[in-house]
Amino acid sequence: MKTNSKYEVIIYWSKEDNSFIAEAPELAGCMADGKTYSEALENLQIIIDEWIETAKSLKRSVPEPRGRLMFA
Predict the structure, then answer these.
(1) What is the reported pLDDT for 18?
(2) Where are the domains of the chain?
(3) How many CA atoms lie within 13 A of 40 on its CB side?
(4) Environment class of residue 15 by beta-carbon count within 10 Å: exposed (0-12), middle (13-18) or buried (19+)?
């Protein structure tokens, strides 16, 4: 499976979930969790690949990675 690591990733600790949460904000709803920072990132890479595969199979557009996002 191809890894799409060019998408920005945000990882944070969720006390409520008692785990790390990793998100790819450029891909709507694309997120994963893990017991460790590394596990959350690894799980997110799998989900990114699946997100893109699903979008393509549904003939939906896949955003190009924009790199670092700026938030106000």
Answers:
(1) 97
(2) 10-57
(3) 22
(4) exposed
Q: Are strands 10-14 and 19-23 parallel, antiparallel or unpaired?
A: antiparallel
pLDDT at 22 over 80: yes
Q: Which residue is it, tokens 């997110």?
A: 44
Instruction: Measure the CA–CA gap between 23 and 25, rounded to whole angstroms.
Output: 6
Q: Please name the residue that has the structure tokens 């700026």.
A: 70
DSSP run (H or E) holding 34: strand 31-34
Does the pLDDT value for residue 72 go beyond 80? no
Strands 31-34 and 10-14, how do they pair?
Answer: unpaired
**DSSP annotation of 28:** T
